[in-house]
Design brief:
10 helices, four-stranded mixed beta sheet, alpha+beta
């Protein structure tokens, strides 16, 4: 059997992560695709890339491949350890009487056997028509907060690559209607199966991933399915208590303000936040902001002056306590 360095074929280190391997494969597969590449060995390289990727993207196959070690050279003749014959034996009737043999078998066939797709009858399996999955694509979708709360449908105008008979590539407009379920959150990644690039040789179509970004809202700040709202209160509302109207995504509601409410206090309105996909809603938190009037009538000024004379409240009393004796 001849050794193939799948990591070198993809141009990645042996410790590369799944995303790095996938990115390297996409880049090289596009370069050597038979419908695009002018390289006379492009088709052969494309098949090698597919074989390497099919092995390294699968955790079980990759672990088995890594057991071979890294001391071999590309194309070097070698035989796997003896215990592999027990680990990867063919089933009864698979054309390997008396057990498993590595004779006339290459690495691509070997790792295909891990998924139960071993060749039958002892002949070398052709990979000329190996199914290659289509590429996955990602697109950013901006949503108003209200649409994320109630769910919506968006029309995505995309451009997908299409290959012509001469091997040229052109971008073809494609419109996809995507249903966004209620409860989508900022940073969420939604998957549309089969809406990505077309597969080759019967391979499955790729997927389209929607990266959700919630547009800034003039009132609400989302955090997961919870919402935060700055709630302005007049000094007397905070001091005496009051009942005020508060906006939510489903309309205005009444909120009771306890007496002696301080600035920065967080008041919770249960289940008035963003809808959750499985049912229910997050919470809405009203953050108290005490706001003074910017223009005073003569009477208002008199009342504030009277309050200043009568009140024993010292907002800076903690200064004296902290530095007492200085």
């Amino acid at each position: 059997m001849k050794y193939k360095d799948y990591y070198a074929i993809l141009g990645v280190e042996r410790g590369a992560g799944a995303d790095e391997i996938k990115k390297a494969y996409r880049k090289l597969a596009q370069k050597y695709h038979p419908d695009v590449s002018k390289d006379p060995k492009g088709e052969e390289k494309f098949k090698e890339l597919a074989e390497a990727y099919q092995t390294l993207k699968d955790p079980e196959k990759r672990a088995a491949y890594d057991q071979l070690g890294s001391g071999f050279r590309e194309g070097q003749e070698f035989r796997p350890p003896p215990d592999w014959e027990k680990q990867f034996h063919f089933r009864e009737g698979d054309g390997a009487a008396g057990g498993f043999s590595f004779d006339d078998l290459d690495l691509g066939d070997l790792f295909e056997s891990l998924s139960g797709r071993a060749r039958r009858g002892g002949g070398a399996r052709s990979r000329a028509a190996m199914p290659i999955p289509g590429e996955d694509y990602e697109v950013t979708v901006h949503l108003p907060l209200e649409d994320a709360h109630r769910g919506t449908q968006v029309d995505l105008a995309l451009e997908m690559p299409e290959y012509d008979a001469q091997g040229g590539v052109r971008r073809v407009p494609k419109t996809i209607k995507a249903r966004i379920p209620k409860g989508a959150t900022d940073g969420q990644r939604l998957r549309l199966r089969g809406q990505g690039g077309k597969g080759v040789n019967g391979g499955r179509d790729g997927d389209l991933y929607l990266n959700i970004v919630l547009d800034p809202h003039p009132l609400f700040r989302p955090s997961g399915h919870d919402l935060y709202l700055d709630l302005p209160l007049a000094p007397w509302e905070a001091a005496l208590g009051a009942t005020v109207e508060v906006p939510t995504l489903d309309g205005r509601v009444s909120l009771k303000i306890p007496p002696n409410t301080t600035a920065g206090r967080k008041l919770r309105l249960a289940r008035k936040g963003l809808a959750k996909p499985g049912g229910g809603e997050g919470d809405l938190y009203a953050i108290v902001q005490i706001v003074n009037p910017t223009v005073l009538t003569e009477r208002e000024r008199e009342l504030f002056e009277e309050l200043a004379k009568q009140s024993r409240f010292d907002p800076r009393g903690h200064f004296t306590e902290k530095f007492h004796g200085d």
